[in-house]
Amino acid sequence: MNKLLLIMPLLALTSCASLMPDTAETGQTSTTSVPEVADAQTSAERPVAAPSQFQPARFAGHSQDYIVQSPADKITIQHFVRGMMQEMVMAMQDVNEQTPVAVASFLYLDTDYNTGNMLGNQVAESFMHELHNFGVKVLDYKLTDYIRVTETGDLVHSRNYEELGGTLAARYAVGGTLTKHKDGVMINARMVEFESKVVVASAQSLVPAKIINALMPSVEANTTPLIKGR
């Protein structure tokens, strides 16, 4: 009788043990299941491509970035001309890398268009630089066919029309006017086709007086500001 009583608890314990899950296996399964789920979620996720950086208008696919952040004390006329060039290039439908373009001096609007000035010449130089950077074929028509050696320097440019070629192979001209404003100078730029006189692109920009007066004439004795009263 005593043996029977001892056997019955043993059978009960054996049956309970058979019904309980293997703690080692269960623990192993539970620890590996979490990473597996995480891996599944990670594999299901796809990297999102970063949005392409906005780029300003390009002429014929040129990749130079013209949006340049500069400190306020480093801003020059070149920055304003660059902005106008960005505006003009949107309308230059018939101009490509093979279209010859000439740039003329910018003249004050209230003159007889017979006298140039340092500001207008600098604006023209800046436009030549920007046009070239956009891939436009720019003609330097003030270039002579020789280098003139002098005591002060070796010269290849001239403003004497008799030293320059008589034929200008440009199809378009870039020029414009300057208008004095109480806050600076308004630059009116345009590209015009020689044959038809049609304006194919234009832009305007108000350059602050501080930027204008930062230009210094080569003759130091001339200290008159470009904008009187400033």
TrEMBL record:
UniProt entry tagged with the keyword Transferase: no
Composition bias type Polar residues, residue spans: 25-44
Chain segments carrying region Disordered: 23-48
Bilayer-crossing regions: none
PROSITE patterns the record matches: PROKAR_LIPOPROTEIN
Annotated signal peptide: 1-20
Top-level taxon of the source organism: Bacteria
Record keyword Nucleus present: no
Keyword annotations: Cell projection, Cilium, Flagellum, Signal
Residue ranges constituting the FlgO domain according to the UniProt record: 83-210
Protein's name in the database: Flagellar protein FlgO
Origin species: Rheinheimera sp. BAL341
